[in-house]
Amino acid sequence: MSEDVTAALEQVVENVTNGVSPSEADVAQLVGSPDLIALGMAADVVRRRRHGDRVTFVQIVEAPLGAALPEGPLPAQTGELRVTGRPESDAVAVGAIRAAVACAGVVPVTGFSFADLDDLSGHNVGRLAKLLSALREAGLAQLGEVSAEGLQDPDAALALLRDSGLVAARLTLGAATGTVGLSLMRQVASWHGVGEVCRCLAPLPRVAPSPPSTGYADLRQVALARLLVDNIDSIQVDWALYGPKLAQVALTFGADDVDAVPVAGAKEQGWRRSPGEVILRNIAGAGFTAVPRNGRFEAVDVGTGSERHAGR
Amino acid sequence: MSVESIASKVRSGGRLDRAEALSLYADAPTLLLGQLADTIRRRKHPARDVTYIIDRNVNYTNVCVARCAFCAFYRPVGSDEGYVLGFDELFRKIDETLAVGGVQVLLQGGHNPDLPLEWYEDLFRAIKARYPDFKLHALSPPEILHLSRLSQEPVPAVVARLVAAGLDSVPGGGAEILVDRARRLLNCESKATADEWLSVMRTVHQAGLRSTATMMYGSVERPDERIEHLYRLRELQDETGGFTAFITWSYQPTNTELGGVEATGVEYLRTLALSRLVLDNFDNLQASWVTQGGKVGQLSLAYGANDMGSVMIEENVVRAAGAEFCMDEAEIVRNIEDAGFAPKRRTMAYDILGGPLFRERDIPRRTELAVARRSGDTHVPAELAQYPARSRPGKQQRDAVSDS
User: B73: which of A48, A132, B320, B404 fits an S-S bond (Cβ 3.0–4.6 Å)?
Assistant: First the structure.
């Protein structure tokens, strides 16, 4: 890379630092350059402006459809009981949420994707609205996710969510890169009110079919999402899909929320290597302040590691 | 001195002192460290090439008397799980390596008291007789020191004998942290003190060989001791110029006596970037994808690394401690190109051999690294009977081999 290009990128970062939104030309400069660090610096400036040094994370217990629910009270650090899988009928969906709520106590219950429920409703708006309402009444705290790629009519879908009184935990972006990925991000940025019904924007790494996305590609997506999409407050990385190390690095590239940190693990690996301790260590190690949250995105106090494990 | 003023010094080509390096390491934002490291990398490698080598990590024995507290690979003398590879097994591994375009073997192993210097000499001669152009990148400084102690010959004499037998270059293993306080805690001071490790490397360089240098961080050492490690290497490099590359990796705690937790991905990238800034007399920094995984391994290229290390083919040591990542040549090349660099195959001395080999000929894809030996394979190579054993279990094993 020539010194001229480097200087141009530094100018873009400086503009962003001074509060100037990146222009089309700036974004093209950042996207076209192999200088990943410059992209990260620009995204980090925007991220710190919105969230300071806070990083939220949620520890979840998964409840796959059809499997037995956890017995006894959920572990203290559980922020969310997540029902996973594609329901076969409205009754199965509503029944699963009712059972999960009974098991979860005060822990919020989330689950299902908008696309799966839309399929279940035969793409009938009225039926889908009724199902969403039934799920909310059954105790569903938030819809699991909405896929940006899967929305045929984004305005209608967002209006439907708004009317149902349900919020989606995250709007996901697949691993489309280059102009396709950029185009999708720009579309999301133009969706009016999306931030009111989708709590986070979650760029997802490509896992299958092979080849999987690379570390560069994953971080580019995170940073570009932060720079281009300003109508959703949080950029989220998924602990399970990114892996602890890359998820941590992504925090320095614009992400401010970590999803899907498992609760399990302490028994098998010892508490210092349990996911709850690793996420606290990773957030601090990346230079941020960890804020545990629950499935409603409310900050919760689960104590520090030493408090949680006092008496061991 | 502020972080910004130290950063300016780096940008203008100034040499960092220990206090400045520690200040950057402790206080500089990770992205700033990456930016500075990338600036130095671009200065040293303006062509945007990223190199890699096709070779194989072979561990000829896992029997070891050093008993390092961070090692999950070794087995004590007399263990049922101890092994020594036979010459034929090693030849087969070299044949497999040649078949995928490999140019050398990285041969390291435990400090086995029952393998005398003559075993190594005979092995090296046998390999060179069969594969004259194949390179032997073998025996880290503690292994050379171990052979010096076993044979009661001074290190220069041992090095001369190994070179005469075919040794081409020396890997930088066993450095861990070159500060004796940390080495005592890791129970690895007896295998080589910091001064001894550096002294063996000096001897190796004076003998005309090149070597690599390494650092295993994240176990018991303090940040200032990591910095001290880097400065000890920089000083020796100023003196001899014999190091071709530096590789750092995080301590892998699984299955070790020491236990604990692994350092994070951000800490790896910070440590790598700082290494690029301090080791201003090292041309090449390698990514440790085998400990960090492919994705963070690739990110190393933005944090100062200019080399993706080895295709490796086989690995046993960090796998024993819980890291099981694999990248074949095609995957390494994909990662290099995706990051905007041009992949170049190289030798240990960083001579460029060409572009990706898998694009020139059909090489089967590989999704996992080979192991030294299949689990449960306990056979003892027949040629061991020719070499005197030192330990009681070793002598008993020799007798059994002779009888059979």
Answer: B320
